[in-house]
Amino acid sequence: MGHAAANLSVSSSQELITWSDSLSVGIQEIDEQHKILVDLLNKLYLAIREHHGNEATVTILDELVDYTRIHFSVEESLMRILDYPDYESHKHHHELLIEQINELRRKVQNGKHIGFELLHFLKNWLTKHIMEEDMEYAPHMLKKGVKANYEQRSWMDRLFHRR
Ligand SMILES: [Fe+2]
């Protein structure tokens, strides 16, 4: 019975976020990076669901902060190179998001229990980031000559599976 009650507040899905085409901005390179962020949030979800403890959670949050920084700097470089008119406000938004995850990380490190509300906060920030912010710059980048698909290997492949 306790189990059934718990299921009312927590989705029975194994994933916090399931990637779908509705999250695609239409630029494969960016989509691949967003998928990595989705994977990290799902990893965090699993760690919390299965009570892996604060130390494991902090490790995942570290990965999330690091990868989010990488992803945001890729986006910011692209926006700058391609003269995206809303660059400043998008960059500001990125800074706020990084601050929020860092804050969360600090709380967990200080022993605070991270609950499902916080996971929902993270889920919202990522889906909002993609669906509201990134969807806006995508048409600009495509118009400026960014390729929708890469013909050869992704940057991950180039970095980690170099021949
Ligand atoms: Fe993004």
Description:
By secondary structure, the protein is an all-alpha fold. The protein has a single domain (27-145), classed as Four Helix Bundle (Hemerythrin (Met), subunit A), CATH 1.20.120. It has six helices and no strands. Mean pLDDT is 85; it is low at 1-10. The site of fe (ii) ion (FE2) has 6 residues, from helix 3 and helix 5. Keywords: Iron, Metal-binding, Oxygen transport, Transport. It holds the Pfam family Hemerythrin.
Keywords:
163 residues, mainly alpha, Four Helix Bundle (Hemerythrin (Met), subunit A), Hemerythrin-like
Strand % is: under 5%
| CATH class placement | Mainly Alpha
Could you name the CATH topology?
Four Helix Bundle (Hemerythrin (Met), subunit A)
* Sheet of most strands: none
CATH superfamily membership, which one? Hemerythrin-like
Structural class: mainly alpha
Order of helices and strands: HHHHHH
Shape: globular
State Rg.
Answer: 17 Å
The total strand number stands at 0
Contiguous helical run count: 6
InterPro entries: Haemerythrin_Fe_BS, Hemerythrin, Hemerythrin-like, Hemerythrin-like_sf, Hemerythrin_metal-bd
Keywords: Iron, Metal-binding, Oxygen transport, Transport
Family: Belongs to the hemerythrin family.
Organism: Parendozoicomonas haliclonae
